[in-house]
């Protein structure tokens, strides 16, 4: 597992909100870390987009202001690059660079731009506003992949291993790391409810390997004889199966208005919605075919596909995938674009900003668990089944069969009524 400590060690472009002229501002002002090198360049335009994913309040600047990145030279003179300016798509040099973010109004008649002034003069006359940014995992929909949700998944869930517990979160500085808490006990009602959502997981793998003939990233395959897909290639979930309950609903906004938050709120949970999300997680539209090593990199959120441009993006210096950065994928069958946006957003949140929040402040996991538990308790047949099991009337296998039988009978009644 590649934890936040390893990811931050390769940061080359650091965004902060300090107005200090020190070459390395105080750690507490860092709001974004970006990796880049000669094979994996990053542009200011991409930084603008990522910062709006991390901090939604940056999407709507104050009237007449523009989102801007500014730097100062050795003489302390501030220069600004506004979002949308020409040249923002140029890649950064390979040396470490510190960038400050602000809102700037270059139409303000008192703006001292071009007069050799530093940032403090711009702030003083009111043409520059330094935002107070704080990474809020609940507001921007960050969904860590760990074992703290306490919500069961379908059969083929990845088993819990010691490596699942290695992800670390920053508490106050790069030298201070804390480990995630151990997984919570699963509510018995929730376990029964999720089991009633049981999916045919084998059909997902067969379907993906039949629909796709090549690895989406490498365009290679292992077909031979009459095998459509040989060994070494994996049917991959875009939205992870362990996060099925947060599968994005149909968006009211167009995906081309990206960046938008594609993760639904934990408040939008009811039985019908949860059943729909579980089903979507195992549909072919949530699947792509990847070579086994690429599958692992994708699942560790170190590789993503931009939901609008279809460009591949690499978040760490790995030779095995560096050559694909910036190239467009070739779709054999286009999957659910909101699922692609979900994965891309989570990659940005995890690699660029999540390390700035102590793990104890990431309450998203607890909120989702509470919501799913609450829905599970309202499902009558599940409660009845649990009560029977607890009273010793039937064993667990019989209880599962009864729950499934009741579900099938319910569907038949609806079908016959129509």
Q: Layout of helices and strands, plus pairs?
A:
Elements: H1 4-8, E1 13-16, E2 30-34, H2 44-54, E3 66-72, E4 78-82, E5 97-104, H3 119-125, E6 128-129, H4 137-140, E7 169-170, E8 177-178, H5 188-195, H6 201-211, E9 233-237, H7 271-281, E10 287-291, H8 292-299, E11 303-305, E12 312-314, H9 319-322, H10 337-353, H11 364-377, H12 380-390, H13 396-417
Parallel strand pairs: 1-5
Antiparallel strand pairs: 1-2, 3-4, 3-5, 5-6, 7-8, 9-10, 11-12
Helix pairs in contact: 5-11, 5-12, 12-13
Helix/strand/pairing category? alpha+beta
Using only C-alpha atoms, the radius of gyration works out to: 24 Å
- Domain module tally: 3
| Rough outline | globular
Unreliable stretches covering 5 or more consecutive residues: 156-181, 385-400
Gap between N and C termini, in Å? 51 Å
Q: What's the number of extended β-strand segments?
A: 12
Average the pLDDT over all residues and give the rounded result. 76
Please give the largest β-sheet: 6 strands, mixed
Helix content: 25-40%
**Strand coverage percent:** 5-15%
SS summary, helix count: 13
The sequence of SSEs as H and E is HEEHEEEHEHEEHHEHEHEEHHHHH
Organism: Orbilia brochopaga
Biased composition (Polar residues): 158-171
Domain HNH nuclease: 215-306
Region (Disordered): 153-185
């Amino acid at each position: 597992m590649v934890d936040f400590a390893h990811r931050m060690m390769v940061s080359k472009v650091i965004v902060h909100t300090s107005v200090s002229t020190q070459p390395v501002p105080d750690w507490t002002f860092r709001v974004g870390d970006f990796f880049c090198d000669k094979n994996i360049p990053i542009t200011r335009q991409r930084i603008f987009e990522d910062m709006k994913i991390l901090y939604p309040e940056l999407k709507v600047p104050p009237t007449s202001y523009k989102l801007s990145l500014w730097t100062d030279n050795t003489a302390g003179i501030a220069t600004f690059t506004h979002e949308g300016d020409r040249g923002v798509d140029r890649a950064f040099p390979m040396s470490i660079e510190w960038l400050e973010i602000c809102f700037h109004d270059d139409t303000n008649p008192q703006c001292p731009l071009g007069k050799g002034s530093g940032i403090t003069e711009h702030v003083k006359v009111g043409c520059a506003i330094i935002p107070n940014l704080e990474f809020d995992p609940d507001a921007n929909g960050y969904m860590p992949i760990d074992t703290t949700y306490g919500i069961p998944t379908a059969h083929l869930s990845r088993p819990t291993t010691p490596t699942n517990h290695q992800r670390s979160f920053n508490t106050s500085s790069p030298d201070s790391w804390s480990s995630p808490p151990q997984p919570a006990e699963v509510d018995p009602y929730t376990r029964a409810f999720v089991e009633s959502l049981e999916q045919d997981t084998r059909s997902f793998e067969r379907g993906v390997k039949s629909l796709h003939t090549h690895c989406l990233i490498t365009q290679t395959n292992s077909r031979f004889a009459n095998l459509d897909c040989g060994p070494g290639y994996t049917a991959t979930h875009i939205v992870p199966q362990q996060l099925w309950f947060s599968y994005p609903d149909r968006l009211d906004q167009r995906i081309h208005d990206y960046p938008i938050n594609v993760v639904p709120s934990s408040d939008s949970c009811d039985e019908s919605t949860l059943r729909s999300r579980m089903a979507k997680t195992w549909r072919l539209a949530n699947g792509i075919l990847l070579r086994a090593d690429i599958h692992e990199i994708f699942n560790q959120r170190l590789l993503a596909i931009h939901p609008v441009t279809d460009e591949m993006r690499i978040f760490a210096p790995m030779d095995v995938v560096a050559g694909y950065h910036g190239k467009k994928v070739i779709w054999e069958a286009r999957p659910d674009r909101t699922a692609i946006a979900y994965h891309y957003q989570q990659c940005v949140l995890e690699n660029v900003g999540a390390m700035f929040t102590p793990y104890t402040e990431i309450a998203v996991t607890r909120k989702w668990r509470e919501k799913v538990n609450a829905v599970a308790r309202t499902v009558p047949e599940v409660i009845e089944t649990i009560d029977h099991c607890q009273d010793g009337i039937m064993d667990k296998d019989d209880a599962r069969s009864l729950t499934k039988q009741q579900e099938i009978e319910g569907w038949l009644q609806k079908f016959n009524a129509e």
